[in-house]
Structures are given as structure tokens and as C-alpha cells.
């Protein structure tokens, strides 16, 4: 059986994550390296754990989160599809059973807005974990005067938490935004489609998605 530790310690996977992030750095994107994939991995697993999913499903979600952005080394465009194909080959070579490979690659191939659909619990958890990772530390640019809107929005988020209330049937993303850096309207300008995708993903998990910013419920 392939475990999460096998994924994290695999030198090939490490190389692909570094290369993918280097490509995005050259394009001016926010951080997509080990901090991002590690956070997405943990959050995706924790969502399913909170909902009482079995331990193996939780671990597969953790793996999908860690691998979800490797396709960026090929190209940012359709990186979810290329990443799914790459993950398929890597996991097959590692000896993972086809049924588990299918779970992970399906989730990776469906995590990006525009083409992604929460077709499974793992895909839904991955979507929410990825789209909710908005934080100051993802901004690479150290000069605020040179920020674009993506830099401003990420840098403006001073606190972020994701809470699953199984009994109440809700999943809530809570953000604290420094509006001297970026406004709430800035946030929705670039993240509305992602938040709507989170809503659909939460519905797949039989949850209602809620977004609160600075204590005010937005969705």
C-alpha cells in the first residue's frame, strides 16, 4: 500500500513541485510550492476527516492535495489535466492499485475553475482546500507599490480559517482582510468564480458553503 509519506519523500515528486513553482514564479504568480501543496493537502484531508470519511479516503485526499499542482511545470493552461496524467504515471510506477489512482487523478483533473467539477468527495475536498488558500505569505513581490490585484488580495488577508460543522451542515471560510491593502470588492473581482466553485463542492459533501469577511457574511 502506498502511503502519504511515500509521496512526500519521493524525489521525483519533489523535483516536479519545485519546477512547477519555478515556472509560476517566472510568470508572476503567487507561491505554489511546498507551503501551498502542504496546506492544501492538510485541509483536504481534514475536511473529510471532520465528515467521518474512512482513513484511506482521507489519506488519498491528502495525496491528491500534495500532487494537485505538478502540471504547472508543463503549462499553466489546463494544468489540472496535465497534472492528472503526470500523477497517473507516477502512482502507477509506484505500484498503487488502479482504483486508488483513479480517485486521485480524477480529483486532480477536476480541481481548477472553468473545467473542474466536484465529481467525488476527494475532488470536492481538494477544490475547497485549494481555492481557500488565500494568505499574505503567498505573495512573492516584496514591493507593495508594484502589487497587481492578485498580490493585493493575497497580501490583504491577515487571517484565514476553514471550519466544518458536520451537525449544522455548514462549511465556513472566515477571512480577515486589511482593507488598506485590498478591498472586499478586489477579493470578489478575482475570486468570485472560485468561491462559487467552493459552494458547488460543499454541496457535493452535503454542506452549505459560507464565506465571512471581517465578520460579515458574504455568501
Looking at this protein, list some descriptive labels.
Hypothetical protein af1432; alpha+beta; 219 residues
Cα radius of gyration in angstroms: 17 Å
Helix run count: 9
What is the CATH H-level superfamily?
Hypothetical protein af1432
Segments where pLDDT lies below 50 for 5+ residues?
A: none
CATH fold topology: Hypothetical protein af1432
Please outline the major beta sheet: 4 strands, mixed
The residue-averaged pLDDT reads 97
Quick one: overall form? Answer: globular
Structural class: alpha+beta
Measure the end-to-end span: 41 Å
Compute the number of structural domains.
1
Would you identify the CATH architecture?
Orthogonal Bundle
User: What's the arrangement of strands in the largest beta sheet?
Assistant: 1-2-3-4
Helix fraction, binned, reads 40-55%
Strand percentage lies at 5-15%
Say how many strands there are. Answer: 4
CATH class division:
Mainly Alpha
* Secondary-structure element string: HHHHHHHHEEHEE
Give an overview in words.
The chain has 219 residues and is α+β, with helices and mostly antiparallel strands. It has one domain (4-217): Hypothetical protein af1432, CATH 1.10.3210. It is built from 9 helices and 4 strands, in the order ααααααααββαββ. The chain has helices at 4-8, 11-27, 34-50, 55-67, 79-94, 98-109, 121-131, 149-156, 184-204; strands at residues 157-165, 170-177, 208-213, 216-217. A 4-stranded mixed beta sheet has the order 1-2-3-4. It is globular and about 50 Å long. The termini are far apart.
Amino acid at each position: 500500500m502506498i502511503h502519504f509519506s511515500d509521496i512526500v519523500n519521493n524525489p521525483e515528486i519533489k523535483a516536479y513541485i519545485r519546477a512547477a513553482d519555478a515556472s509560476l514564479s517566472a510568470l508572476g504568480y503567487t507561491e505554489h510550492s511546498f507551503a501551498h501543496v502542504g496546506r492544501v493537502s492538510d485541509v483536504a484531508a481534514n475536511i473529510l476527516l471532520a465528515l467521518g470519511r474512512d482513513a484511506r479516503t482521507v489519506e488519498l485526499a491528502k495525496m491528491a492535495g500534495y500532487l494537485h499542482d505538478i502540471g504547472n511545470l508543463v503549462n499553466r493552461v489546463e494544468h489540472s489535466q496535465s497534472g492528472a496524467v503526470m500523477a497517473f504515471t507516477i502512482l502507477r510506477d509506484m505500484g498503487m492499485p488502479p482504483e486508488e489512482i483513479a480517485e486521485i487523478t480524477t480529483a486532480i483533473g477536476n480541481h481548477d475553475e472553468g473545467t473542474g467539477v466536484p465529481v467525488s468527495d476527494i475532488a470536492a475536498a481538494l477544490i475547497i482546500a485549494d481555492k481557500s488558500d488565500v494568505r499574505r505569505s503567498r505573495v512573492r513581490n516584496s514591493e507593495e507599490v508594484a502589487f497587481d490585484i492578485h498580490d493585493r488580495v493575497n497580501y490583504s488577508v491577515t487571517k484565514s480559517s476553514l471550519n466544518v460543522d458536520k451537525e449544522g451542515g455548514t462549511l465556513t471560510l472566515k477571512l480577515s482582510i486589511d482593507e488598506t491593502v485590498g478591498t472586499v470588492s478586489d477579493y470578489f473581482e478575482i475570486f468570485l468564480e472560485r468561491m462559487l466553485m467552493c459552494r458547488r463542492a460543499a454541496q457535493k459533501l452535503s454542506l452549505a458553503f459560507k464565506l465571512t469577511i471581517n465578520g460579515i457574511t458574504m455568501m
